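Appendix B, record 7
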Amino acid sequence: MLDEARRRQLIEAVASAVIAHADELTALDQAIGDGDHGMNMKRGFEAVLADLDGLAAKPLPEALKAAGMQLVMKVGGASGPLYGTLFMSLGKSLPEEPDRAAFAAALDAAIAAVKARGKSDAGQKTMLDVLVPVQEAVAGEAGIADIARRAQEAAEATIPMRATRGRASFLGERSIGHMDPGARSSALIVEAAAAALGAGA
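Structure tokens (predicted):
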């Protein structure tokens, strides 16, 4: 049961993790992108934190949809619509009291929405390369710590990949050898959420 206090803890943990790693995300994006991923994501999640009381007071589906709207409005670039779509779709698909199966199904629907929005799929060196294996772990029997580890490993697995979508795809072979910044930010979100949920389990 995610009561208001636990919803607050969850939202705060995710937003704080992204903000704390803004410089790392910027450095990753400077290598293969526009160099603005860290600051854009920081701006978006600072807006989420600024509305922490209001978001925590809402049922989880409504809180996710509202956070998604904040990200669409504040993040900008390609990441704003993609992360906004992820959170808003998750909110639309989740029941107020989701069990594991319901969360796995909602995450699957949210990933499908991100794929459609970005016209991309797993294997192209994007955030999907973290989200897809995480969804598979949630749908399976993986524990919370294993799901967080899966996210981290999936982000690291983008390093040897050649980007075929997004700004990094223009670099061709030169995109190889760098972690995808969107994969890293997705892993940060998953790891922070897992830690927050695990702490109250």
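Remarks on this record: The domain at 4-199 is CATH 1.25.40.340 (Serine Threonine Protein Phosphatase 5, Tetratricopeptide repeat). The chain is about 70% helix and 0% strand.
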